[in-house]
Write a structure and sequence with these properties.
The structure is a homotetramer. Chain A is built from nine helices and no strands. By secondary structure, chain A is an all-alpha fold. Chain A folds into two domains: about 1-50, Arc Repressor Mutant, subunit A (Orthogonal Bundle); about 55-190, Tetracycline Repressor, domain 2, CATH 1.10.357. In chain A, α4 packs parallel to α7. The interface of A and B includes residues 165 and 190 of A. Chain A binds a DNA duplex (21 and 21 nucleotides) through α1 and α3.
DNA sequence: TATGAATGAGCGTTCATTCAT
DNA sequence: TATGAATGAACGCTCATTCAT
């Protein structure tokens, strides 16, 4: 009995998410309006707020799902052997995160939450991300004098830095990944001197 | 004649800034309202926008000035010999930048602008910051296999990471600097492998 | 200079009130929607709330103005010589106040506020009302063993009672005034023990 | 079989009422939410509306029961000999009715319903109240030139007036009863002139 | 009877920004 | 430059009530 009810709930929630995704695909994340979402989903406004604490919660859900998709993709890849491969693996995800300044801001705002108790969709992806990268770095030819976990955190820090600069400098596509590559070369490679 | 006008202009601007600073000291940055600023400064709302492109421009001014103050302090310090000293030197600045999530967000938003043409107060401070840190790292016992400029960018990336996590994890004061120290140990020390 | 600005303000306010009055004439007070008012007045929603604290404040204004109109009428009348004349004088006002349950409720809610500092339009009319009735009762053949002011308060109390019952009992028009007449006969006439 | 069902029905209803009373004792009448009632009672929202036509019906029930309690108390009293005694007898009831503006509004809304067919709990209490007061006034030294029934209605009218003013004027406790005493002195006492 | 997800209209609010004077 | 009324698009929220199961 409880199941049946939950089913309806899940359906409604799915309808809201689907409607939102359609709208995002059309106009982007920043332009998303709660009004339009409920209209397209064919539900009442109150229903929206019964499912999502606020608009930001929907964004968390939406963006988190997208990131998870990229991580699924990334997890299928073999551990990168060098920085170039690592950057290439991460690139699609970074490109998504920087598709809109608005998206990047949201991601950043949730980036550290992984350490808190109330973990939302985006925050969870950071956990996955760390695990994946840590795994790669654990059994690799990369630097080994520090723990893979710390290395992974550094990769995250440099990724964020590269993405942040992406919004300021001349927006050539190459810059972001090139900059990241340069960072990681210095961060991950065993001492060559 | 021109001078007289400029003088009045500067006075008005100064009055606005002073009013804003008083309000910030009282309620913090996020709670600052243009309404209150013009009220306290004794000018009309329209006047505000004759002096500042938008509210963000005032924030830029306000926060930039504070950061510059910290940098003045930092520049008087002798080059740090180890990571601990480096972290200690940076700490007051980091503490200010994380006094409010809102402030941190603004700082981040302007952090990369240094590479752009239109450089605002906050962006300028990043330039100064980079120079100071680069200078420190240039003639030091820290890692030398990469350029001081790149090293400085790394210090910035890790600082941001540490500050970002500060807002999520359990907010003990120690965490932020400890985490940064750990990062920088791995980033700045000559690799021993 | 200040005057010119105030003029615009007053015009806008007048436009809002006029729009509201048109809508009320059409659909009644309860059906009044802020949305429709601003639409008809051709102003932004924010403007409405810059002029009226909330919807209730507009209602206060609207209903207060109507009551004032009735009081203007009442003031032109000669002091009533008997209860029948008194009731007849008051009747149009009572009829307005009971035109909608919603209106009566608002009037009641503001009825006693005359004694407070923050006196709104409706509350002010109660002051006028009291003065008018007191004046009538002062030099009259009505009961004189209590002050005219107290007598007037009693008239108010019985009017309210009659109106309140109007909404419950069988809604014949005669009831309200008849009941009031009966009350006032007992309240105002010299006691004959 | 029917009995068993009725029993369960009554139990559920009692649970709802008990839950509501607890909540009211805690936060007052106005803050009562159906949501919280069903939560505390451990039933579904729909169940609430299977037992009460609407929220107002529960309020009617709740407040009516309280008033009945006061009337029980009042009925044990000997007929008051003077206005002071009468006011003292009524005072606890008036104090309850003015414990919240919200309560007073509800009471008022139901006050005249006694004359209608569909008599709810609160309306019934007004019937009792009228009977009690009429009884007191019937065989008393109070005014006798008008019927006890009419006198009782006047007492009601003045009580309402006193209570209404209680919400506006300076909220000293004395005002309400003092004002009522003054009213009733003029309303109930035989002509003294 | 019981369930509880869904309804839904509308209010209040926000506040940086604009523009006619 | 200065003025300050007006803008305006959403968001959040409310919460009693309904209805399909």
């Amino acid at each position: 009995m409880k199941r049946a009810v939950q089913k309806r709930t899940l359906e409604t929630r799915a309808r809201l998410v689907a409607a939102a995704e359609t709208l995002v695909a059309d106009k982007g994340y920043e332009a998303l309006r709660v009004e339009e979402v409920v209209l397209k989903a064919g539900v009442a406004k109150g229903t929206f707020f019964a499912h999502f604490r606020d608009k930001e919660a929907l964004m968390d859900q939406l963006i988190g799902a997208r990131i998870d998709g990229f991580l699924d993709e990334i997890e299928t890849l073999p551990p990168p052997r060098d920085v170039a491969a690592l950057v290439a693996a991460i690139e699609p995800l970074m490109r998504f995160m920087t598709c809109e300044r608005y998206v990047f801001d949201i991601v950043l705002r949730h980036s550290g939450a992984a350490l808190t108790e109330e973990i939302g969709p985006i925050a969870s992806t950071f956990g996955r991300y760390d695990q994946v990268v840590s795994g790669w770095l654990a059994g690799s030819s990369f630097r080994r004098d520090v723990s893979p976990g710390l290395l992974a955190e550094g990769v995250q820090a440099f990724s964020v830095q590269a993405m942040a600069l992406h919004f300021c400098a001349l927006h050539s596509d190459r810059n972001m990944t090139h900059r990241l590559a340069e960072y990681l070369e210095a961060w991950l490679m065993p001492k060559t001197t």
